[in-house]
Amino acid sequence: MDERTLFLRPPVWLPIAVALIAGGMYVMGKYVEKQDFSPVMITVSGDGHVFAVPDIAELSFGVQTQSKREAKDAMEILSERMKAIFTAVKKEGIPEKDIQTEQFSLHPVYDWTERGGRVLKGYEAYQSLRVKVRDLDMVDDVLSAATNAGANQAGSVQFTMDDPDVLKSVAREEAIKEAQEKAKVLAKDLGLRLGKLKGFNEGGGGYIAMTMRAMDGVGGGIEESASPPLPAGEQKVTVSVTLTYEVK
Fold it and tell me: Same domain, yes or no, for 236 and 209?
């Protein structure tokens, strides 16, 4: 019985066809790989503003002693005057929780001479209070009471909001509405449809507290009629937002 072996030779065109198909698939793969399928985004911003009358005044005042030879002498004078001021302010109806020490210092004072150079002259003491006044009609009375009790230094009167977050919330709503309207108009102008909200950012939020100088270096008390008018006016609360939308 004869054994025969059959050899099949592939067609000449087969390797060429395989190479063309593989090359085509590779090229198509690279083409698809390079396509940018990320959605189109637009970013818009909006601002919201609210005006409100301040409901809190923060007053700053204190005592600066003259130079005393001994540090304890300066401290005794400071302590006596500050106790008197503290008592006077409380009599105006200000609770202790709204009175706090703002600054305190005890420092040496020097004279300069040609022969001796720096020579210790004595010591000065300083302390200031920050007082929160919740009834704005009482600002002048509290200032007068403090200076009549011995305050000879004052920093400022600052009108502010006790709870600005409520006003910020209102301003934020206005800012978001403005940004949303801008997004709708922009999408329409581009011939696209507004899609999902993809990003939100809030910045620039805050309000401007009005500050004015009260008196500085006042010696002794001031007459009630001499107190200058201190109108609180209005303050502006501003919130800015940025929205990012997908468009189709």
Answer: yes
Q: With pLDDT > 70 as the criterion, what percentage of the chain qualifies?
A: 73
pLDDT at position 88 over 90: yes
Q: Residue 40: its pLDDT value, please? A: 85
Given this model, what pLDDT does residue 234 score?
75
pLDDT tier, 162 (very low <50, low <70, confident <90, very high otherwise): confident
| Secondary structure, 3-state, the chain | CCCCCCCCCCCCHHHHHHHHHHHHHHHHHHHHHHCCCCCEEEEEEEEEEEEECCCEEEEEEEEECCCECCHHHHHHHHHHHHHHHHHHHHHCCCCHHHEEEEEEEEEEEEEEECCCEEEEEEEEEEEEEEEEECCHHHHHHHHHHHHHCCCCEEEEEEEECCCHHHHHHHHHHHHHHHHHHHHHHHHHHCCCCEEEEEEEEEEEEEECCEEECCCCCCCCCCCHHHCCCCCCCCEEEEEEEEEEEEEC
CATH number at residue 66: 3.30.70.2970
Question: Is the pLDDT confidence value at 78 over 50?
Answer: yes
